[in-house]
Amino acid sequence: MSGLPDTPPYRPSVADVAALLRARTKDAEGREVGTFNDDTRPTGTDVELHIDAALSLVGIQVPADFPVTFTGAVSALVAYRAALRIEKSYFPEQVRSDRSAYEQLRQEYVDDLQALTDALAASGSSEYGSAGSRAHSEATPTYLSVYGQLPFDDYWPEPENAANWQDPFQPPREPPLPEDLPVGDLPASGAELP
User: Fold this and answer.
1) Does residue 65 contact residue 125 with C-beta atoms inside 8 Å?
2) Dihedral sign from CA coordinates of 133, 135, 138, 141
3) Whole-model pTM?
4) Which residue ranges make up each domain of the chain?
């Protein structure tokens, strides 16, 4: 479930996104309007769609019960994320040629997201940042643990060992048989198993 509700009060406005991309708020005659509207590219309606997408993307990184004091920070993150989407969508050639503010906006977004994550962890919001919560490193199911073959805590199969490779002549089967699974579990270095 996303951390942000369907119509959050911290949804940034088109003007909030325009404040980050003021140079992009030009009309057909090249005049800087100061916000996105029907005469700009993108239009205000286009920006609203990017804000909706940004809400979803930021929402998966924010707990549903974050403190009200973080409302402004979440709104600013959503505005940054929408601005990044607009830069890549409408000005990709400038992003690729480094004639866009994309990298600076992205770095600000990453820094602000980290600051929000740290502040949420410090606030104790839903144990945000503790093991098993969104902002903390979680155990990732590996091939071995998914298939119940993990007798060791820190052991990973190494694809460099040819003994771990699948049979290239075996076509895929549904459902896969145990011998169809991706790799074996022999170490690449030939080291002894723990």
Assistant:
1) yes
2) positive
3) 0.62
4) 14-127, 140-194
